Amino acid sequence: MKGFGFIQRDDGQPDAFVHISAVERAGLASIHEGDRFEFDLEVDRRGKYAAVNLKPAPAQEG
């Protein structure tokens, strides 16, 4: 709804910002809490991490 949000990283580092434009470029209409993604990180001029090149993560076996 806001057009942006944050993705919790598996490596324990600070959450990565994600903008709706990155979601749309991935061919997705939206993302929801609990969805898992593979993504690249870009660092902005303030040193904050943004998620780009999102792809749905493969299903976890278990």
From TrEMBL:
Keywords from the named record: Cytoplasm
Gene3D superfamilies in alphabetical order: Nucleic acid-binding proteins (2.40.50.140)
Methyltransferase keyword on record: no
One of the record's GO cellular component terms: cytosol
PROSITE patterns: CSD_2 (PS51857)
Keyword Transmembrane attributed: no
InterPro entries xref list: Cold_shock_CspA, Cold_shock_domain, CSD, CSP_DNA-bd, NA-bd_OB-fold
Residue span, CSD domain: 1-56
Single GO MF descriptor: nucleic acid binding
Annotated localization: Cytoplasm
PANTHER family found in the cross-reference section: COLD SHOCK DOMAIN CONTAINING PROTEINS
This protein's name: Cold-shock protein
